Amino acid sequence: MAASSVLLRAVPGPVAQMRSVPPAHGIETSTTLLAPSICGVRGFGVGRSGYGVCVRKSVLRGFRAQSGATNVERGAEITSGSGKDNNVVFVAGATGNVGSRVVRELVKSGFQVRAGVRAVAKGQALLEAAKLAKTSSSEKEPVELVECDLEKQDTIANSLGNAGVVVCSIGASEKEISDVTGPYRIDYKATENLIKAATRAKVNHFILVTSLGTTKLGWPASILNLFWGVLIWKAKAEKALEDSGLPYTIVRPGGMERPTDTYKETHNLRLASRDTWFGGQVSNLQVAELIANCVSNLDRARFKVLEAVAETTAPLRPIEELLAAVPAERR
């Protein structure tokens, strides 16, 4: 479950100060419909870390200022009766293709992030590779790496800290396709452990990343079940979240193995409700922007299942507008 993310640094606050980093890829122009990614956060051939651990505080460095999330007026949304702080977000799978981008987008929007990665050494290597250097005089760093093994349920609570929002972007790695237990252990049980811990901690909102085709058979999404029934286990994780009593958002992306971060320059995001699509593509960055926007607009995202693809023929619309157009499944 190796990760290949680039961590960065930004200044916390209503508007972060950043330096642009040139895109590493050319513009993606393919519009071929593919099956959704195996774990909802990446596809065959592109590894993404699953759940994880880490132990030292850190900050993020400059990144491209292409974000779908807006600076938010959080006011009364900052805390609820639980005493949790919605300005603090716990991200599980924070070194993955989606998770690392979620961290960046949240920092851009002024959130504090508690970022979980699976291996201490891996987390520190990411920090060193990014050559992090503090750019703010503020003593409070925007990102803290925290220790969290999601297969050990009794260790999760401390990792959540005072986070009011939890984002779960974990999944079994196709690089370990010979592990028949992977989807069951990670996509279902580890996710369920995090849901249970979040429920006991009385967090205010839980955002879960899964995949297209999770609860209804359809081509080509259903072919992913050849990976040891991964969509079946993702469906059970979704059901565990829906039954938890927590306010939630479920994000079901299309295939993310081919689109680069520049995909959004030629393909606009589309959102739909549960079981609308079974094929399509979307970039990791577009999914991360959507998640950050959900965190910034919890009332608008509450109790929604959001299927996400990107198409050349789709009109360019603000994410807030797309989000508002998808009906909530409960009130």
From TrEMBL:
GO cellular component assignments: chloroplast
Stated name of the protein: NAD(P)-binding domain-containing protein
Pfam families assigned: NAD_binding_10
Species lineage: Eukaryota, Viridiplantae, Streptophyta, Embryophyta, Bryophyta
Keywords, in A-Z order: Chloroplast, Plastid, Transit peptide
Span of domain NAD(P)-binding: 93-297
Keyword Metal-binding found: no
Organism expressing this protein natively: Ceratodon purpureus (Fire moss)
Subcellular location: Plastid, Chloroplast
KW Zinc-finger (keyword) present: no
PANTHER family for this protein: PROTEIN TIC 62, CHLOROPLASTIC
